[in-house]
Amino acid sequence: TVRDTFLIDPAVILIVVGVVMFFVTFCGCIGALRENIRLLKTFSFSLMLVFLIQLVIAVLGFFYSDQTRDALGKFVKKAIVHYRDDLDLQNLMDYIQKEFKCCGWNNYTDWSWNLYFNCTHGNPSSERCAVPYSCCTPVPGETVINTMCGFGVQTQKYLDANKSIYPVGCADRAVMWIESHLLLVGALTLGLALPQVTPHTPVLNSCYA
What we know:
The chain is mainly alpha-helical and about 210 residues long.
């Protein structure tokens, strides 16, 4: 629903990654079993190439953070526009908003991009000026989720809306999360990078894995 081209279809990406992984591990496994120098060199070169690609992506993401943020913003905007068109997309947006305690990309009024939540006077939808329930702050002891808790919120000012929903946009929340988890992000990055640059155990182990 939100992708621009067929090439960024999640299924296509998973297939391509799977093919690459099969090729790399095949070269390492057969190269070790047959003691084939060419296959082992191909295996080593492939690992180095994958590592360099990851490094380039990380560097570009760091130096072009504004462009990365704009790209994510376009994705989220499309996700908001098509929120009611796809159940999986709807569940994804709800999960993101509940986990990050945010609403919309910039703020809660972004939900006016959606046909159903649009806040114009001519909108006949019963959800006009509303936001999804995933924007709402949880009520202590509530066992049944009130899916109408966000109705009419877009007509309220920030301070009033803050009483019932998370008015902060997911963009700011994501930045805050990264800044507060820099040690975790750095440790994960280092943990992924070290096995790729340190000497490997005998490639034969990959056959039994």
